Amino acid sequence: MKSLAIHGKEDIRWEDREVPTPGDGEVRLRVNYVGICGSDLHYYFHGANGEYTIREPLTPGHELSGVVDLDPSGRLSPGTPVTVHPARYGASVPGLEDRPHLRAGGDYLGSAAADPHRQGGASELLIVEDHMIRVLPEGLPLERAALAEPLAVAIHAAGLAGDLTGRRVLVIGAGPIGLLVVAAAKNAGASTVAAGDVRDEPLDRARTLGATELHLVGRDAIENESYDVVFECSGVAVALTQAVRAVRRAGTVVQVGMLPNAEIGVNLAPMLAKELTIRGAFRFSTEIDDAVALLSASDALDSVISHVVPASDAVQAFELARDSSASAKVLLSL
Fold this sequence. Notes:
Layout: E1 2-8, E2 11-16, E3 26-35, H1 38-46, E4 48-49, E5 52-53, E6 63-70, E7 81-84, E8 87-88, E9 107-108, E10 125-129, E11 133-135, H2 142-145, H3 148-160, E12 168-172, H4 176-187, E13 192-197, H5 200-208, E14 213-216, E15 227-232, H6 237-246, E16 247-255, H7 270-274, E17 277-280, H8 287-297, E18 305-310, H9 314-322, E19 329-333
Parallel strand pairs: 12-13, 12-15, 13-14, 15-16, 16-17, 18-19
Antiparallel strand pairs: 1-2, 3-6, 3-10, 3-19, 4-5, 6-7, 7-11, 8-9
Protein backbone atom coordinates (compact mmCIF):
# COMPACT_ATOMS: atom_id res chain seq x y z
CA MET A 1 0.00 0.00 0.00
CA LYS A 2 0.97 3.68 -0.28
CA SER A 3 1.18 6.37 2.40
CA LEU A 4 2.22 10.00 2.48
CA ALA A 5 5.08 10.83 4.85
CA ILE A 6 6.52 14.22 5.78
CA HIS A 7 10.23 13.75 6.46
CA GLY A 8 10.97 17.40 7.18
CA LYS A 9 10.48 20.92 5.87
CA GLU A 10 9.05 20.73 2.31
CA ASP A 11 9.91 17.03 2.09
CA ILE A 12 6.82 14.87 1.56
CA ARG A 13 6.92 11.45 -0.07
CA TRP A 14 4.39 8.97 -1.46
CA GLU A 15 5.89 5.81 -0.03
CA ASP A 16 5.35 2.07 -0.03
CA ARG A 17 4.33 0.60 3.32
CA GLU A 18 3.42 -2.85 4.55
CA VAL A 19 -0.28 -3.65 4.76
CA PRO A 20 -1.25 -3.29 8.45
CA THR A 21 -3.20 -5.97 10.30
CA PRO A 22 -5.88 -4.90 12.82
CA GLY A 23 -5.78 -6.33 16.33
CA ASP A 24 -8.46 -6.73 18.97
CA GLY A 25 -10.73 -3.69 19.09
CA GLU A 26 -9.30 -2.32 15.85
CA VAL A 27 -10.66 -1.86 12.33
CA ARG A 28 -8.81 -1.42 9.06
CA LEU A 29 -10.19 1.30 6.80
CA ARG A 30 -9.67 2.01 3.13
CA VAL A 31 -9.27 5.78 3.09
CA ASN A 32 -10.92 7.73 0.26
CA TYR A 33 -10.41 11.39 1.18
CA VAL A 34 -8.20 13.34 3.58
CA GLY A 35 -8.53 17.09 4.15
CA ILE A 36 -5.42 19.27 4.41
CA CYS A 37 -5.58 21.21 7.68
CA GLY A 38 -3.57 24.19 8.91
CA SER A 39 -1.50 21.92 11.15
CA ASP A 40 -0.62 19.76 8.12
CA LEU A 41 0.55 22.88 6.30
CA HIS A 42 2.80 23.83 9.23
CA TYR A 43 4.31 20.36 9.38
CA TYR A 44 5.03 20.39 5.64
CA PHE A 45 6.21 23.97 5.11
CA HIS A 46 8.03 24.45 8.44
CA GLY A 47 8.78 20.94 9.70
CA ALA A 48 6.89 21.80 12.89
CA ASN A 49 3.48 22.87 14.17
CA GLY A 50 4.07 25.30 17.02
CA GLU A 51 6.29 23.53 19.52
CA TYR A 52 5.78 20.11 17.93
CA THR A 53 8.69 19.30 15.62
CA ILE A 54 8.84 16.36 13.23
CA ARG A 55 11.37 13.89 14.67
CA GLU A 56 10.49 10.94 12.44
CA PRO A 57 8.53 10.56 9.15
CA LEU A 58 4.97 11.71 9.84
CA THR A 59 1.89 10.66 7.89
CA PRO A 60 -0.40 13.73 8.04
CA GLY A 61 -4.18 13.86 8.09
CA HIS A 62 -6.93 13.83 10.70
CA GLU A 63 -9.87 14.88 8.50
CA LEU A 64 -10.88 11.75 6.61
CA SER A 65 -13.56 9.53 5.18
CA GLY A 66 -13.48 6.06 3.74
CA VAL A 67 -14.95 2.59 4.01
CA VAL A 68 -14.37 -0.39 6.25
CA ASP A 69 -11.82 -2.77 4.76
CA LEU A 70 -11.56 -5.36 7.56
CA ASP A 71 -13.25 -5.63 10.96
CA PRO A 72 -12.06 -8.75 12.78
CA SER A 73 -15.02 -8.52 15.18
CA GLY A 74 -17.51 -8.76 12.31
CA ARG A 75 -19.49 -5.81 13.65
CA LEU A 76 -18.88 -3.66 10.58
CA SER A 77 -19.21 -5.06 7.07
CA PRO A 78 -16.60 -4.35 4.39
CA GLY A 79 -17.61 -1.29 2.39
CA THR A 80 -19.42 0.43 5.28
CA PRO A 81 -18.88 4.21 4.80
CA VAL A 82 -17.32 5.92 7.80
CA THR A 83 -15.51 8.93 9.16
CA VAL A 84 -13.23 8.95 12.20
CA HIS A 85 -13.03 10.84 15.48
CA PRO A 86 -9.26 11.34 15.45
CA ALA A 87 -8.66 11.69 19.21
CA ARG A 88 -7.61 9.25 21.89
CA TYR A 89 -8.05 10.81 25.31
CA GLY A 90 -5.75 10.76 28.31
CA ALA A 91 -6.62 9.54 31.80
CA SER A 92 -9.71 10.98 33.50
CA VAL A 93 -9.14 14.19 35.46
CA PRO A 94 -11.49 15.67 38.09
CA GLY A 95 -13.20 18.74 36.68
CA LEU A 96 -12.78 17.67 33.06
CA GLU A 97 -15.43 14.96 33.00
CA ASP A 98 -17.33 16.72 30.19
CA ARG A 99 -14.17 17.90 28.40
CA PRO A 100 -12.14 14.78 27.68
CA HIS A 101 -10.37 16.54 24.79
CA LEU A 102 -8.56 18.73 27.35
CA ARG A 103 -7.03 15.85 29.31
CA ALA A 104 -3.26 15.52 29.18
CA GLY A 105 -1.74 12.38 27.71
CA GLY A 106 -4.03 11.85 24.74
CA ASP A 107 -3.09 11.94 21.08
CA TYR A 108 -4.52 12.86 17.68
CA LEU A 109 -4.16 11.38 14.23
CA GLY A 110 -1.38 13.02 12.21
CA SER A 111 0.30 14.75 15.15
CA ALA A 112 3.97 15.07 16.11
CA ALA A 113 3.05 15.99 19.70
CA ALA A 114 3.64 12.43 20.87
CA ASP A 115 6.90 10.48 20.67
CA PRO A 116 6.67 8.29 18.68
CA HIS A 117 4.38 10.38 16.50
CA ARG A 118 0.71 9.50 16.05
CA GLN A 119 0.55 8.65 12.36
CA GLY A 120 -2.34 10.12 10.39
CA GLY A 121 -4.89 9.20 7.79
CA ALA A 122 -3.18 10.01 4.47
CA SER A 123 -2.65 6.33 3.78
CA GLU A 124 -4.48 3.93 1.51
CA LEU A 125 -5.15 1.66 4.50
CA LEU A 126 -5.49 2.87 8.08
CA ILE A 127 -5.88 1.07 11.40
CA VAL A 128 -8.06 2.82 14.00
CA GLU A 129 -9.65 1.74 17.26
CA ASP A 130 -13.28 0.82 16.82
CA HIS A 131 -14.55 3.51 19.22
CA MET A 132 -13.14 6.18 16.88
CA ILE A 133 -15.36 5.14 13.96
CA ARG A 134 -18.55 6.96 13.03
CA VAL A 135 -20.75 5.14 10.51
CA LEU A 136 -22.13 7.59 7.94
CA PRO A 137 -25.85 8.01 7.22
CA GLU A 138 -27.08 6.69 3.91
CA GLY A 139 -26.73 9.26 1.15
CA LEU A 140 -23.88 11.28 2.71
CA PRO A 141 -21.12 11.42 0.05
CA LEU A 142 -17.66 10.44 1.23
CA GLU A 143 -16.22 13.65 -0.19
CA ARG A 144 -18.50 15.82 1.95
CA ALA A 145 -18.03 13.53 4.94
CA ALA A 146 -14.33 14.46 5.00
CA LEU A 147 -15.52 17.81 6.44
CA ALA A 148 -16.85 16.16 9.61
CA GLU A 149 -13.76 16.80 11.74
CA PRO A 150 -13.25 20.51 10.89
CA LEU A 151 -17.00 21.12 11.10
CA ALA A 152 -16.94 19.57 14.58
CA VAL A 153 -14.23 22.09 15.52
CA ALA A 154 -16.51 24.90 14.28
CA ILE A 155 -19.58 23.57 16.10
CA HIS A 156 -17.57 23.25 19.31
CA ALA A 157 -16.35 26.86 18.97
CA ALA A 158 -19.90 28.09 18.38
CA GLY A 159 -21.06 26.25 21.50
CA LEU A 160 -18.39 27.92 23.63
CA ALA A 161 -19.96 31.29 22.82
CA GLY A 162 -23.24 30.32 24.47
CA ASP A 163 -26.68 30.77 22.97
CA LEU A 164 -26.27 32.48 19.58
CA THR A 165 -29.99 32.85 18.91
CA GLY A 166 -30.64 36.35 17.61
CA ARG A 167 -27.01 37.40 18.10
CA ARG A 168 -24.85 39.49 15.80
CA VAL A 169 -21.73 37.46 15.05
CA LEU A 170 -18.44 38.34 13.36
CA VAL A 171 -16.01 35.73 12.03
CA ILE A 172 -12.51 37.07 11.40
CA GLY A 173 -10.60 34.89 8.94
CA ALA A 174 -12.62 33.19 6.19
CA GLY A 175 -10.36 30.23 5.57
CA PRO A 176 -11.82 26.72 5.77
CA ILE A 177 -12.39 26.80 9.55
CA GLY A 178 -13.77 30.34 9.40
CA LEU A 179 -16.19 29.31 6.66
CA LEU A 180 -17.38 26.38 8.77
CA VAL A 181 -17.78 28.69 11.79
CA VAL A 182 -19.97 30.92 9.61
CA ALA A 183 -22.13 27.89 8.84
CA ALA A 184 -22.16 26.73 12.48
CA ALA A 185 -23.18 30.18 13.73
CA LYS A 186 -26.00 30.37 11.19
CA ASN A 187 -27.14 26.89 12.19
CA ALA A 188 -27.07 27.96 15.86
CA GLY A 189 -29.55 30.76 15.20
CA ALA A 190 -27.40 33.89 14.83
CA SER A 191 -29.46 36.71 13.33
CA THR A 192 -26.48 38.22 11.51
CA VAL A 193 -23.19 36.60 10.57
CA ALA A 194 -20.43 38.81 9.24
CA ALA A 195 -17.05 37.75 7.87
CA GLY A 196 -13.75 39.59 7.71
CA ASP A 197 -10.65 38.67 5.72
CA VAL A 198 -7.69 40.29 4.00
CA ARG A 199 -8.72 38.86 0.61
CA ASP A 200 -11.87 39.11 -1.50
CA GLU A 201 -12.02 35.45 -2.54
CA PRO A 202 -12.57 34.01 0.96
CA LEU A 203 -15.24 36.65 1.57
CA ASP A 204 -17.06 35.57 -1.58
CA ARG A 205 -17.09 32.01 -0.24
CA ALA A 206 -18.40 33.24 3.12
CA ARG A 207 -21.25 34.98 1.34
CA THR A 208 -22.34 31.70 -0.25
CA LEU A 209 -22.55 30.17 3.25
CA GLY A 210 -24.78 32.92 4.61
CA ALA A 211 -22.51 35.79 5.67
CA THR A 212 -24.49 38.97 5.04
CA GLU A 213 -21.90 41.54 6.13
CA LEU A 214 -18.42 41.40 4.62
CA HIS A 215 -15.34 43.31 5.75
CA LEU A 216 -12.17 43.47 3.68
CA VAL A 217 -9.57 43.90 6.41
CA GLY A 218 -7.28 46.83 5.72
CA ARG A 219 -9.86 48.64 3.63
CA ASP A 220 -13.18 48.48 5.47
CA ALA A 221 -13.32 49.71 9.05
CA ILE A 222 -15.19 47.44 11.45
CA GLU A 223 -17.15 49.63 13.81
CA ASN A 224 -16.23 49.27 17.47
CA GLU A 225 -18.72 47.40 19.68
CA SER A 226 -20.77 46.30 16.67
CA TYR A 227 -21.04 42.55 17.37
CA ASP A 228 -22.25 40.42 20.27
CA VAL A 229 -19.79 37.59 19.58
CA VAL A 230 -16.54 37.52 17.58
CA PHE A 231 -14.81 34.34 16.45
CA GLU A 232 -11.13 34.94 15.64
CA CYS A 233 -10.18 32.24 13.12
CA SER A 234 -7.02 33.60 11.51
CA GLY A 235 -4.52 33.12 14.33
CA VAL A 236 -3.01 36.54 13.66
CA ALA A 237 -2.28 38.80 16.63
CA VAL A 238 -3.64 41.97 15.05
CA ALA A 239 -6.91 40.15 14.36
CA LEU A 240 -7.34 39.40 18.06
CA THR A 241 -6.87 43.10 18.76
CA GLN A 242 -9.56 43.81 16.16
CA ALA A 243 -11.87 41.23 17.75
CA VAL A 244 -11.60 42.89 21.17
CA ARG A 245 -12.49 46.24 19.62
CA ALA A 246 -15.36 44.92 17.48
CA VAL A 247 -17.22 43.07 20.24
CA ARG A 248 -19.79 44.86 22.35
CA ARG A 249 -19.55 45.45 26.09
CA ALA A 250 -20.03 42.23 28.07
CA GLY A 251 -19.61 40.36 24.80
CA THR A 252 -17.61 37.24 23.98
CA VAL A 253 -14.53 36.61 21.87
CA VAL A 254 -13.73 33.01 20.96
CA GLN A 255 -10.16 32.38 19.82
CA VAL A 256 -10.35 29.58 17.24
CA GLY A 257 -7.27 30.25 15.10
CA MET A 258 -4.01 28.77 16.40
CA LEU A 259 -1.88 31.60 17.78
CA PRO A 260 1.92 31.34 17.48
CA ASN A 261 3.76 29.85 20.45
CA ALA A 262 5.61 33.13 21.06
CA GLU A 263 5.34 36.56 22.63
CA ILE A 264 2.97 38.51 20.38
CA GLY A 265 1.70 42.06 20.36
CA VAL A 266 -2.01 42.15 21.24
CA ASN A 267 -3.89 45.15 22.65
CA LEU A 268 -6.30 43.76 25.24
CA ALA A 269 -6.90 47.06 27.04
CA PRO A 270 -10.58 47.32 25.98
CA MET A 271 -11.23 43.94 27.61
CA LEU A 272 -11.31 45.51 31.07
CA ALA A 273 -13.75 48.35 30.51
CA LYS A 274 -15.99 46.08 28.43
CA GLU A 275 -15.82 43.17 30.90
CA LEU A 276 -15.33 40.82 27.98
CA THR A 277 -15.22 37.05 28.03
CA ILE A 278 -12.34 35.68 25.95
CA ARG A 279 -12.40 31.93 25.43
CA GLY A 280 -9.98 29.58 23.76
CA ALA A 281 -11.35 26.81 21.54
CA PHE A 282 -9.44 23.53 21.25
CA ARG A 283 -10.62 20.78 18.92
CA PHE A 284 -13.90 19.21 20.16
CA SER A 285 -15.43 16.43 22.24
CA THR A 286 -18.59 14.76 20.90
CA GLU A 287 -19.48 17.39 18.29
CA ILE A 288 -18.37 15.19 15.40
CA ASP A 289 -21.73 13.44 15.71
CA ASP A 290 -23.50 16.79 15.29
CA ALA A 291 -21.25 17.52 12.33
CA VAL A 292 -22.15 14.26 10.60
CA ALA A 293 -25.86 14.99 11.11
CA LEU A 294 -25.51 18.51 9.69
CA LEU A 295 -23.54 17.30 6.67
CA SER A 296 -26.15 14.64 6.03
CA ALA A 297 -29.03 17.10 6.19
CA SER A 298 -27.81 19.46 3.48
CA ASP A 299 -25.33 19.84 0.64
CA ALA A 300 -24.78 23.52 1.47
CA LEU A 301 -21.27 22.89 2.77
CA ASP A 302 -20.06 21.32 -0.46
CA SER A 303 -18.84 24.78 -1.49
CA VAL A 304 -16.20 24.68 1.27
CA ILE A 305 -14.38 22.00 -0.75
CA SER A 306 -12.61 23.83 -3.55
CA HIS A 307 -10.22 21.15 -4.85
CA VAL A 308 -9.69 17.39 -4.80
CA VAL A 309 -6.12 16.36 -5.67
CA PRO A 310 -4.58 12.85 -5.87
CA ALA A 311 -2.39 12.10 -2.87
CA SER A 312 0.43 11.26 -5.26
CA ASP A 313 0.42 14.98 -6.20
CA ALA A 314 0.75 16.09 -2.57
CA VAL A 315 3.29 18.85 -3.26
CA GLN A 316 0.84 20.54 -5.62
CA ALA A 317 -2.00 20.02 -3.15
CA PHE A 318 -0.12 21.59 -0.24
CA GLU A 319 0.94 24.57 -2.35
CA LEU A 320 -2.67 25.05 -3.40
CA ALA A 321 -3.99 24.72 0.17
CA ARG A 322 -1.58 27.41 1.36
CA ASP A 323 -3.01 29.97 -1.10
CA SER A 324 -6.29 31.19 0.37
CA SER A 325 -7.01 33.24 -2.74
CA ALA A 326 -6.99 30.11 -4.87
CA SER A 327 -8.50 27.55 -2.52
CA ALA A 328 -10.69 26.81 0.46
CA LYS A 329 -10.60 23.19 1.71
CA VAL A 330 -8.31 20.99 -0.36
CA LEU A 331 -8.90 17.25 -0.18
CA LEU A 332 -6.43 14.52 -1.03
CA SER A 333 -7.94 11.53 -2.81
CA LEU A 334 -6.43 8.12 -2.14
